Structures are given as C-alpha cells and as structure tokens.
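Model it.
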Amino acid sequence: MKIRKILVLLGIVSALNIWTTGCGTTHEYNTKTQEDEKEEVLSEKLSDTASEENDTDTAKTQENATGKWQVLEPEAAAAFDADFKGKVWEITEDSFYIVETKVKVLEDGSLATSTPGSNAPIPDSQLIQVVFDDETTFRARTIYDNGERHEDAEAGFEDLKEYMAVDLKGHFENDVFYATEIRLPKVE
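Modeled.
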C-alpha cells in the first residue's frame, strides 16, 4: 500500500514538473516564429501601398534590423542593475563566452531566472561572446539577506571561472556583448 502511494505521488510530482517546465521548443525557434509573423504582417502592409513606398519601407526595415541577442527588458534590467545576465561557458585569452540567463518578470512582480545546467550540451550558436577593454570594471558582488544588501569588491578577469554566473553592463553590437562592467555575484 505504501509503495502504491509513493508511486502515485511520484507520478503527480512528475506530471507537475512537466507541466511547469513545459514541453515547448527552444528559444531560437520561438524567436524565428515571431520574426516570421512580423515579416508576414509587414509584407501585408507593404502590399497595400504604392511601389515607391515599398522601397522606402523595406530600406527602413533593413536599417532597424537587430541581432539575435537583446539586452534585458527595462523592468528586469532595473531590478538586477544589469543589462544582461549569463553563465560563463568558455574562457579564452582575451574574452569569454556565456550562455544567456533567461529573465522573466512574473505577474506578481517577482523575478524568475533560468540557466542551462553545467553539463547541458550547448551549441556554439547559443554562446555569446563577451569582450572587454582596459576601461571595463570587474566587481565581485556578495549578496546577503535574500538580496536586501550587498557588498562589492574589486575583481579581475582571472577571477572568472567556468559555469559562474555573471551580470553585465554594456551593449550588443553584431551579437557580441561589449562590457563596461562585469559583476560576479555570489549569494551568502
């Protein structure tokens, strides 16, 4: 009888886990689908206008084209005091590569983050190169009391370790993140 109850409970927990994490597709597929839908709407609008306007609208669309990676939404960026979050995946001589930490603002205003596990297979197309220069600031941030307070200390490139979380300030250019500040958060 106990074994049966345990199996039922295990089945329920497994079903809830699948339900909460979903059986969806990857972020890359969702982005492509959204871009395709935008292009369809744009092409419908363009087909209703004169051919002269089509040429100028197409040129404007190409000028406004963005890369694959984007900085955090303003609300999430303000909450984390960062433009982008990630996990260090590979360290090279003068730069490093990260995997995106997905950030979501929930309906109740709380924040949820999600990062792949350290032994998850990540294709190179999902890695983001982070470059920095002599002006870039490295900081080790120790977070206390569930984020109520923190202390910053100086850090350097040598303090980066694989699979370590990083908070970045800077901007994207051609899908490369140019960092002005790199923080290495540690929760106590």
